[in-house]
Amino acid sequence: MSLENTTIVEILDTFEFLDDWEERYKYIIDLGKKLTPLAPEEMVDENKVRGCQSQVWLVAETDVDGKIHLRGDSDAFIVKGLVAVVLLIFSGKTAAEIQATNAKEILDQMGLSAHLSPLRANGLFSMVERIERMAA
Q: Which of 28, 32, 38, 62 is 20 to 30 A (C-alpha) from 54?
């Protein structure tokens, strides 16, 4: 299964439906399992996200319509799920749309900032900043 037909709205709805954080974490991990793994040659230093406790790689490709398609991977299950959430927020948008997207608001709506360890939250926002820089 892939994330292709999943939207950030569906994730927000699912988060609202799930009562406890253990269930939400399981859901995030399941989202990460749906990511297509990056090829080993893409897991290089230039694609690595700095500021993450775990290893995270992000790859961006721009199509003929100017939409940026993002792919990512991590060596940790929960972080791979967070990569999936961030990709769902940004992938398939133009650079202008990415820069106009308030990812912090969406992530706050999910309650992630309050329920992640400080190191994981820092890594999450490092991913967001990296994507915003890629779009600049």
A: 62
